[in-house]
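Input chain follows. Return structure tokens only.
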Amino acid sequence: MIVWINGAFGAGKTSTARELTGLVPDSVLYDPELIGDALRLLLPRKRLDEVTDYQDLPSWRRLVADTAAALLAEVGGVLVVPMTLLRQEYRDEIFGALAARRIPVRHVLLAPAETILRERIGSRAEVGARDWSYAHIAPYQQALGWLTADAYVVDNGALTPGQTAERIAEAIRTETAAVCEIVQTPEPTRETVAAGVLLFDEQDRVLLVDPTYKPGWEFPGGVVEAGEAPARAAVREVAEELGLVLDRAPGLLVIDWEPPCRPAYGGLRLLFDGGLLPAEEVAQLRLPGPELREWRFVTEQEAAELLPPQRFARLRWALRARERGTVLNLEASNPVP
């Protein structure tokens, strides 16, 4: 298990984490800031200059999850992780990678009042650290909406690190601090077959979904299970994600071979035509649950802004196949001559 202690810079995460390791049996402190320090030494200066924060490096986010899994495999027990995460998509990516390894995460937010937070930051001797922390108060406040909805919140303004740790330990023991609801399938170990469904509204816009467990928007759908027909998998995934039961098997639009690109294995990606959804059916779509943050109907132009390039290319050719009433064979999201 992982206890992830989140909060603004200066909220007392690290000191609380140290105290918590003394209260939770078989617990070990794991500070992902060490991963950032290592990347600063390992990556070329040109790459580092392209980001303002090491959290913006995909390698940092992947290594944080990989290292946590390796540590738990080595020592077992509980990892206590003091780390600020203010971008929800980064939380989703890291927690989703942990969920894929069946590692539960209890997300805790230390939330002292802003006046107390500023006093604590002001007491720091390092001018650079003070300036950095002050500059990140505004982004922290902007993130409070999703943070307070997701995490177990502890107002530690009047508490010592030891008292804060005791409150967290009690919340873990009583399961008041629940396991974070990030849903993720195990990471593939070989090529996979995935089936997506294109659904359209009365303005001929296509439905996209925003998964919680990975960055970027997607089509409704998912990985085809062993022994399962792809069209049936597509119907099943739409029902699971959106609560929409398709009354017929969707027709195939494109079959796309996605080449392996480390660390991904690639495989076959199929897109089906789920047809038009009348306004009354759109109104009955289930609100996003643990798997989805949001869904929306978009034009092709709007989809280009939301989808990763290769995924958008697949959509673009699927829309052309729908217009022509044909099926297209793609490789790396380009038609095969």
